[in-house]
Design brief:
This protein is mainly beta. It has one domain (about 5-260): Trypsin-like serine proteases (Thrombin, subunit H, Beta Barrel). The protein has helices at about 5-15, 35, 120, 230-240; strands at about 30, 45-50, 50-60, 65, 85-90, 95-105, 125-130, 155-160, 165-180, 180-185, 195-200, 205-220, 220-225, 250, 255-260. The strands form two sheets. The chain has a six-stranded antiparallel beta barrel with strand order 8-9-10-13-12-11. A six-stranded antiparallel barrel has the order 2-3-4-7-6-5. Strand 11 (about 195-200) and strand 12 (about 205-220) form a beta hairpin.
Length: about 270
């Protein structure tokens, strides 16, 4: 694990985020057919109203993990839960299953007005509650990896700008470092990838290591940043359980990617500070 003395360097790196268009890497596999999607059905698109989306993943039949900044509007206000819909395994207009959201919880220390500070990346997670559970026979939820190791080989399944109609799978990238609740990866993510699960292999099935919060796109120097979920998830579950139906337990956003566009939203936050 990287020590705290490296955090200033991390802060400097985060200030290099840029917002230009990026070509899709040949390392991405488009999960177009039902057979291609087998095993990844629990990853889906989180649609917010009619204009925006992020990526999310089932961790229980009625619970979806995504990035916290996805559930705030541009004024930093929490969006209404009833405007959010999770579409598991969405590909070219077809879904494995879908359900509307009745409530959600965000990490207590997440600040929707805090920009791309390290503290925000550390807490950029939200847990959504679905109105109707999605059968595990259709989309088996993923467990969260509780003991990340330095140098993990990882993979990412995400939606994004110019690839929002079907998930893309990068079957192998790397954890570059981890420090004080934050992880850095060299994975291929883009606008709309916010909330995308970063997987590490655990036995016969992948487990969720982190969620995409933000990224750095400087030429070939691809970077993605995410949080350690092992301490956040118990708090999210507690707060979600305490929330009544139809309400969100949140701290008083960030934009989401516009479907088919991406320029007016953050998806993965590639905006200059």
């Amino acid at each position: 694990m990287i020590g705290s003395r490296h955090i200033p360097a991390l802060l400097a790196a985060l200030c290099l985020w840029a917002g230009g268009a990026v070509a899709q890497s040949s390392g991405l596999i488009r999960l177009t057919d039902r057979d291609d999607l087998f095993g990844w059905e629990a990853v889906g698109r989180v649609d917010i109203g009619r204009a925006g989306f992020c990526t999310g993943v089932l961790i229980a039949p009625d619970q979806v993990l995504t990035a916290a900044h996805c559930v705030y509007d541009r004024a930093g206000q929490p969006v209404a839960a009833e405007t959010i819909r999770f579409r598991a395994g969405l590909r070219d207009g077809e879904v494995i299953a879908e359900a509307r959201v009745t409530g959600y919880a965000t990490a207590p220390d997440y600040d929707p007005q805090g920009g791309t500070r390290v503290e925000n990346i550390r807490n950029d997670a939200a847990l959504l509650r679905l109105a109707n559970p999605i059968s595990s026979a259709l989309a088996a939820p993923f467990a969260v990896h509780e003991r990340p190791r330095d140098g993990e080989r990882v993979s990412v399944v995400s939606y994004g700008r110019d690839r929002d109609k079907a998930p893309s799978w990068q079957r192998e990238c790397n954890m570059l470092w981890r420090a004080e609740g934050i992880m850095g990866f060299d994975c291929n993510v883009i606008f709309g990838s916010s909330g995308a699960p970063v997987f590490a292999r655990h036995g016969n099935r992948a487990r969720i290591l982190s969620l995409v919060s933000a990224g750095n796109w400087q030429g070939e120097d691809r970077r993605a940043y995410g949080m350690d979920l092992s301490t956040l998830l118990p708090m999210l579950k507690r707060d979600l359980h305490a929330a009544t139906a139809g309400q969100a337990t949140v701290n008083p956003g960030f934009k989401r990617v516009q479907v088919g566009e991406g320029k007016r939203a953050s998806g993965a936050r590639f905006a200059k500070p």
